[in-house]
Amino acid sequence: MSTQSVLRVVSRVTGRVRFWRMMEAFVPAALWALVVLLPLYVADMFVAVPWYLLLAPVAGFIVLFILFAAKRLRGVNRFEVAKIVDDQMQLKDRLTSALYFERLKFDDDMSRAAMAEADEVASKLDLGKLALGTWPKRTALVGGLVAVTIVLAIGPMHIRGWFGSATAGKTAAAKKTHELADEGAAPTDNAPAPLEKIDNKKPIQSLTKIESERAPDRDPNSMDTSMSADVLADIEAVKATVNMQDMKDMQDAFKDDKDKPKEKDKSDTKPPPIAPLDQELLNDIARATKTKSEKSEGGKDDAIGVAVKMPSKPGAKSQGQPKKGGGGHGGGDVGESGDTRGAPRRVPIPGREKLVVDSRKSNDTVEKTDFEKTVMTEVMMRLSMKDVEMTAKAVDVPTHFSPQAREPVAEETIPPGLRGYVQRYFEGLAPRQAPQAPAEGGTEKPTE
Amino acid sequence: MSEKTSKPANANVDARLAEFRATFGRMSDEVSKVIVGYRDIIDNVLTALLTRGNVLLEGVPGIGKTMLVRTLGEVLELQFRRVQFTADLMPGDIVGTNMIAQDETGRRTFRFERGPVFTNLLLADEINRATPKTQSALLEAMEEHSVTVAGTRYVLEEPFFVLATQNPLEMEGTYPLPQAELDKFIFKLDVGFPALEDLDEIIVRTTFEAMPKVNRVATGADILRLRALVREVPVSPHVEDYAARVVLATHPETEHATEMVKRYVKGGASPRGLQGLILAGKVRALLDGRYSVSCEDINAMAHPTLRHRIQRNLEAEAEEISRDAIVSDILTKTPQTAEAV
User: Fold this and answer.
1) Among A99, A172, A176, A370, fewest CB within 10 Å belongs to which?
2) B341 three-class SS
């Protein structure tokens, strides 16, 4: 006996039954997820909530929905659907019984009559009258919560701004720091100087070029160029240790630099004030300059300048980059300084410091940047071999910057008198506990 | 089976179904001529008759219980006997006894003298007034349609049908029916007091003229044929499953039991109750013009079938929790499902 009409009715209704079962699974799952998600969204306006916490309710919703849907859809088969139609249309189990009789192959007269009757009834059914389901409880509540969540998630930004003043404050410092870093200016307030990452893959020359063209982090006019008593003492100690041959090499180097013809008229270039380093050293430099000028020896020579980035002074303003060509000179060349302020003090350097080795040519022995002054101070301090406060963390420097520091020593032409200083400087950056440990990637030995 | 052969089969079934409904209707109508206002009771009694079951009628005196059974006997052209149960009634008074008889030659032999149970319709009036021993005399007759006396088994003539009555008010000097005997009744029907319009009709019918004369509209053979048709009605597995879960729910120790059952029920229905539930559902399906039983039929017949099979505990009696309330609770909380096979 055919029950095709019954099967057709059941197949047409099954999809609708599954839809409503899915809704019955969706609403409670969504409600649970939204109850967790909304407080997180609100909290995100005031404190930074990790993204994975915001995604956790979504993942929970998916899991709950799958579980609920699996439970709700488990009983959906054609017999269950036929039973639903029977109950809805008050057919007194005609369709369900007919399906069972056909499946179980009931072959008596009464069963066949039952199937025939069910098929006839099914063919006359108006499925439009079927009300297979109603919206589950709390559907409206879930809808409202979803709307609120959407507004919070993708709504106009000014709405978030109303609540997000605290958030703006929270992120202002970091944002400003990034902006200042992008502009090459020193950050204000008490925020630490932004650290710049050195791209190790870039050629060393390009790095040094970028650094040489960079504006100074501090206004030289506002710098505290006075030197500490410790530094002066160090310099005195250096003087005692440096032999005359080294001093003569330095003088020769300065002499060579002075012989180099000036590339540009420096009449409009005001040399930046420099710190009064060791008076004796300044005198040596001045003598070398004078001697060089008298001999009028031309030519070029290579000098090295080592710049250690110092933390900026609070309130300092960026003055832009000094004019090219009138830049600093390598070696122990320093400029004049009329600063007679109080006792110098050393500026502590944070753990990670940017170290740039610059090798360039210059004939100007007077025009020096504050970097170079600081370098010289550092060199003198290191040479003193005294146990003083390190201005850079030796642990990080050889790990990250040693290869870059050694390359110019090995590759660039350094005045013989300064090589010892430079070499010892970089050796001084190494940790005291393991001074002989080779630096990472540093296979070349510096040229003595 | 092909469509060509199925149509005559369906026509035959349809004819038998029509005959069933017509006969049932005629019987009900004839009894209703005398019994006013108890149509549902009459239909249930006829249903029990067609399921080969017995009926226990419970109601206050004077509402027509005995008259109902007498009228039914007249309508069905069946032999009818009435036994007034009293405290001194003995089992032999019901089933019969062996008596010494002397023939023409003077030879004395035992001869079985049949009791009133040898009939088609037996009215056991005030059955709870007899002792349990006498009450138990009916057990074999009610269930197996036979009696055994002195080692000899006597089969009762079909159709055999027992209708018992009892009074729920005057309980002094009565013996409540044991559960084993209650279980033999497929239905226990509570005969309530007639409504106002029914009382008016009773006045008109019984106090002005003679009692209305009823016609015999069916025979014993008709009843047997209708009983056979009832047995042919198929039952879907999901209906069987539902009926079984309903019966199981009457047992407080099962997982299907409701909280009310667990709290107020001491014992539940037997498998015989399940048989009666299905058979009664079949009759109801046929009367409704259907060829198979539905869960709705089970629900409709659950109260008369299960109410006397549920044993309440003391807490239920103290709180006056009725058996019908327990059955209703079971029907409400037992889900109707249709699982894949």
Assistant:
1) A172
2) coil
